[in-house]
Write a structure and sequence with these properties.
Blueprint (H helix, E strand, L loop, with lengths): L2 E5 L3 H12 L3 E5 L3 H8 L10 H10 L3 E4 L2 H5 L4 E4 L15 H13 L4 E5 L7 H12 L7 E5 L9 H6 L4 E4 L3 H11 L6 E4 L1 H32 L3 H9 L20 H14 L5 H25 L9 E5 L14 H11 L3 E5 L4 H7 L5 E3 L3 H5 L4 E4 L11 H7 L7 E5 L6 H6 L2 E4 L4 H10 L9
Parallel strand pairs: 1-2, 1-4, 2-3, 4-5, 5-6, 7-8, 9-10, 9-12, 10-11, 12-13, 13-14
Helix pairs in contact: 1-3, 5-6, 9-11, 9-12, 11-12, 12-13
Bound molecules: nicotinamide-adenine-dinucleotide (NAD).
The site of nicotinamide-adenine-dinucleotide (NAD) has 26 residues, from helix 1 and helix 5.
Length: 460
Amino acid sequence: MKKVCVVGTGYVGLVTGACLADLGNEVVCLDIVEAKIERLRAGEMPIYEPGLEPLVRRNVSKGRLRFSTDYTEAVRDADYCFIAVNTPSISGGAAADMTYVESAAGSIAQHVTRDVIIINKSTMPVGSGDLVSSIAHKNLRDTSLNISVVSNPEFLREGSAVRDFLQPDRVVLGSYDQAAARRVGELYVPLRAPIVITDLYTAEMIKYASNAFLATKISFINEIARICDLLGADVKEVAAGMGYDKRIGRAFLDAGLGYGGSCFPKDVKALAHMADQAGLHPQLLDAVMKINVDQRHVVIDKLEAEFGGAGKLAGKTVAVLGLAFKDNTDDMRDAPSIDIIGWLAGAGAVVRTYDPIATETARAVIASEDVTYCESEYEAAENADAIVVLTEWKQFLEIDMERLRDQMRDPDRSAVLIDGRNLFDPEEMTRLGFHYQGIGRGASRRRSVLSNGATPLADE
Ligand SMILES: NC(=O)c1ccc[n+]([C@@H]2O[C@H](COP(=O)([O-])OP(=O)(O)OC[C@H]3O[C@@H](n4cnc5c(N)ncnc54)[C@H](O)[C@@H]3O)[C@@H](O)[C@H]2O)c1
């Protein structure tokens, strides 16, 4: 039984701690936020993550997992100390804010009583392993102890974090101390995943390059979606047709409102910043970020087009379905809904909204005077002039769409539905009487024009 301390008990730290405990290790999850640790001790999850609660409960009851705010007791006996604290963008800037990592590294070193491996699981700029090592060595009280630093970036996705951790595509470990990297690898052996051992900087770069590549795929398909809208093709079918090609793959080719959340936006920004600092202009990354920002505005553009142009949203009631940055999470960090609701409120629209899970986290980031939080999709749609879908919650597919339409202000004449996640079938929605617009579903509009006996758009 290996002794593990995980510093930072958020989406990554809590999942890492619970999963490593489940693999048979003795784990202490440490956080500086007392309220979080108290809730965990009381058996409550501070975050929504499918499958996490039973995993935590099982390992707490077996005595393999506990929670602490006290570095002395959490670090004292640990052979492995993971750093899983937040690394947001610095306020108003692009670089990663390393203050939480620096503080965690210093505190770990001050409290170790035996040789320890510090494992950087937080996403941190290339070269941060050196920073952690130097802070740790400066803070070490007993200089006869040995501290090694291993970078072990995390690739889990919120919403499927437990499964992703336990069934990773690969485990990446980077260090100057290859023996330490192999010792960290021992923790992951039960997962039977490929283990990639590299130098420190390369492991740190693998994380940024992976996130930047996935963000690029998203911005790529969103640009294709805009072209589809103009030329009359259907981006969903385009993505399916492309995805069969093994060189391309189907994943991350869902056109929508762009990427959000706590990782892609800040990581692409941080990588571009690193390139800039090193003297390279990151042209592709800049384009990826610009497309992503513009993509959120597509909802407003489509609404304005439905209502007769710019300035026509004043006084309109818009029902927003979905607030979280993606389905299966309560995480609101950099969610497109924040910008979109801000723009709607700024244009004078009245916003009513419903999210199955993220309402509480949303209240903290979206001012209540801009929005009415509702208990159901149907309540949100009451007297609405338009409905917009901002999150791909699967439960939205269970909505009784006729009932939803009938809640609206004028269901027979102007039931506008902007499907920002391409959840619904355009032809079915048109048949139900919605003025439907997805993202990049130009072909469906061409088909409905044709079925009315009109000329195809391409010939107009
Ligand atoms: N969330 C994801 O999907 C995801 C996926 C892969 C990688 N990452 C990376 O993992 C890291 C953590 O992300 P997260 O989403 O879990 O963050 P989070 O904000 O949910 O959790 C971070 C936790 O660290 C705690 N903390 C901060 N400073 C501390 C300190 N000095 N000592 C102890 N605890 C401290 C905070 O209180 C918080 O509970 C980030 O670098 C992120 O980029 C996140």
